[in-house]
Amino acid sequence: MNGAGNLMDFLDEPFPDVGTYEDFHTIDWLREKSRDTDRHRKITSKSKESMWELIKGLLDAWSGWLVMLLIGLLSGTLAGVIDLAVDWMTDLKEGVCLSAFWYSHEQCCWTSNETTFADRDKCPQWQKWAELMTGYTEGAGVYVLNYFLYVLWALFFSFLAVSLVRVFAPYACGSGIPEIKTILSGFIIRGYLGKWTLLIKTVTLVLAVSSGLSLGKEGPLVHVACCCGNLFCSLFSKYSKNEGKRREVLSAAAAAGVSVAFGAPIGGVLFSLEEVSYYFPLKTLWRSFFAALVAAFTLRSINPFGNNRLVLFYVEYHTPWYMAELVPFILLGVFGGLWGTLFIRGNIAWCRRRKTTSLGKYPVLEVIAVTGITAILAFPNPYTRRSTSELISELFNDCGALESSQLCDYINNPNMTRPVDDIPDRPAGPGVYSALWQLTLALIFKIVITIFTFGMKIPSGLFIPSMAVGAIAGRIVGIAVEQMAYHHHDWIIFKNWCRPGADCVTPGLYAMVGAAACLGGVTRMTVSLVVIMFELTGGLEYIVPLMAAAVTSKWVADAFGKEGIYEAHIQLNGYPYLDQDEFTHRTLATDVMRPRRNEPPLSVLTQDSTTVEDVETLIKETDYNGFPVVVSRESERLIGFVQRRDLILAIKNARQKQDGVVSNSVVYFTEDAPQIPASNPQPLKLRRILNLSPFTVTDHTPMETVVDIFRKLGLRQCLVTRSGRLLGIITKKDVLRHMAQMMNQDPESIMFN
């Protein structure tokens, strides 16, 4: 027996894959944390031994910052490339640049010497398709041909996008934020952040946005940045072997994604903190800040919009806002909250229908149908024909003396002598009134079509369509208030701040506030939303109107239902995500734990009387993720907990590397080998894979405490004991089922399928 002692301890050396997780399982945050602490302790003690070990320790400490730098550089570059490609392909639907086909409409006319200021978007080098084919620029035939080609290009782009997603990377569809929230909470979805997903998502995102569908690229850019983060994690064992550390990097990558999506580095950090992250230590805050900074700097170097800004929507307003204007701002907040509620309910109902009926079997057909309807309805209206980002940019703009937009067709006073940027309020001309009609139609169209677009099998973001709905509504309200102030400046509300001939009301500001309100209503963001909006537009002095609208929209939307669109999609897909809502029901651990009264007893292992065959039979007959280890079946005194995957790997490894391990070898989890006759086969020591400090609660612990423990410590399971005796087990899924039951939902409908 003694001669075999060193053989029995073979497991004291770690073997490959122990402590890893299977697909669609939840990680054990406490175990990951303690493993990282052990690794850190080992590096610190080794660094005192030699200079080489000290350098290795320093490299390990700096690897986190290096990963952030790489994430920032790659996500910034990809965002710049996506912006340039979308710009070119959106214009490709209408025409082509003859001097260089890779130029977009704007770039084509920049390089032309024959462009006049009045017709800055017309130049001989840029030709619409009908003009190129027929030689005519006007007429019904030309319009019909342009219309037909516009629809054809849109259908081609969307068909290509949905086909690539279906064939190469099914995980590249959707916005990606609900899944990233779930992954950051500790769930494992293998391949969701893989190399193929990164490549296909980048390409199909360009195609989907260019097709003219009512979707944005901002949400998917967060997914793209997280894929970059995952890619660089695999280069460093510190992150690739520890799922907890990997999630710290992914939190920072999400910040970099929003940073390049909106050109809002601080907003990105706050978005990661407020909206997507589950565990966000201070160290991750600094690293997110650094990643967001590098990403924004990279994007600024590429300068995709050609305006030396990080964003398309940069605006400068010349007038302050007045207290009386808070009323329309708050009304826009109410509209944002109502639109958010309508959108979430409509979209979830449609997505549930897609999941439960045969509609879900034809994703390509669905994308083609929605694209066809969108393109056919969008082309006649100039506000829906252009890309949504350009539309928002025009709605945010203030009408200067040099604006040629229809929205700026005001009747000028011929006697006006004023500086160019301070134009007084003027009566609206016919252009403004026709623009208002077109905008109203665009608003109805966007509200309806976005409900059906979000959630299709192509990359689709929600930020830009939501902002477009709000910006259109805001601009309409802004023009209405402006005209009221002009025609009724003697009313008591306008008397104090709006003198005749003054520039009182800025309609663009209302569009900005409306955009913030609608985005807040859909996502329920508040702090990060306001910061993103003022970084996006540079409107620092308009923080109060933005805050008023964001808070109002959240209050109104929360009155109809607490969850934002991402939480609703998490629930629809049944991901095991514990949200931060209070649990107020008065139930106890004993009400939730398994096994229940009429169920078979708990499957357990004993510390020194189970054979290898018993363990293998237990693994084969059950699908539990782990087993409690007790002193004996009679006493049921708890010793620890062992993971199913670790058991399988340990026994497989022992059979390959250790002589004498057969089916009737005794498995023991104690420090010393049990007393067994010499004729018996070699025993197997598995103490190394035993967790000696599993989390336990007593059977009378209130469930609100248990839910809190699961939420704050990120547990997978928790054992229930009474006076040291094992009674049962509560898993994360049991907690989710119980919470659903308490809210009168079907507990099985919320489980991940």
From TrEMBL:
Superkingdom, taxonomy of origin: Eukaryota
GO cellular component, one term: Golgi apparatus
A GO MF label: voltage-gated chloride channel activity
Localisation per UniProt entry: Endosome membrane; Membrane
Regions crossing the membrane: 62-86, 147-169, 189-209, 221-237, 249-273, 322-344, 364-383, 435-455, 462-481, 509-534
Main location: membrane
Membrane topology recorded in Swiss-Prot or TrEMBL: Multi-pass membrane protein
InterPro entries: CBS_dom, CBS_dom_sf, Cl-channel_core, Cl_channel-4, ClC
Domain CBS, residue spans: 593-657, 690-748
Record-linked PANTHER family: CHLORIDE CHANNEL PROTEIN, H(+)_CL(-) EXCHANGE TRANSPORTER 4
Family affiliation: Belongs to the chloride channel (TC 2.A.49) family.
Name of protein: Chloride channel protein
Species the sequence originates in: Anabarilius grahami (Kanglang fish)
